[in-house]
Amino acid sequence: MHRRTAVVTGASGGIGAATARRLSTEGFDVVCVARRSERIEVLAQEIGGRAVTCDLTDADQVATLAAAVGDSLDLLVNGAGGAIGLEPLEHAVADDWRQMYEINVIATLQATRALLPALEADAGGTVLNVGSTAGRIAYEGGGGYTAAKHAVAVMTETLRLELSGRPVRVCEIAPGMVRTEEFSLTRFRGDADRADAVYAGVDPLEADDVADVIAWMATRPAHVNVDLVVVKPLDQASHHKVARRPQ
Ligand code: 8X3
Question: How many domains does the chain have?
């Protein structure tokens, strides 16, 4: 029987790592991709997958990744990304914005472009982009991240239009508040108190909750394209309306 193969980027932690684990339990051979070799090697060993170290913002490294994946692929989960800083626009740091565009948008573009021939081989495949509720709304201080995630959302729609008639599904999952070990810590440049305060009194999503939905999207019959799933914690009615229990 054909064993399905998945590439998961951003597999060194958070949603990416949880997705790699979950897809392996769904029977996929998983190629774990990230910059941090040690983390993905441990994960690949745990799930019987493969680790390919790659900085997706570097075109040469992405070409090497594509060669390592080979000429057939069933699923690409573009999980690499992240937020840096929460400064209002008038105090925004241009290099932070550039970096967010690189890790969220250019990384997704380059991985998708390089792996598309393999995804289109055989019976076809699926591109599943991890966007964000930040790709659908605006919020104060979120400018660089919301702009990048809006770009991911539009890129997803563009690709679906451009691939019309070809056997590649193009999907986006847009999670809201997800507690991972790194997302908020990176955003607040290592300030653990500020990072923890984001989730105070809330029952947020965990990475496994998002991985669960990704697995569902990816395992629908081949003619079913789940365009977009927005998934938030029950406590988060909207970005600005979060029900917090007193601490
Ligand atoms: C969602 C995170 O901070 O934009 O990816 O709500 S946030």
Answer: 1
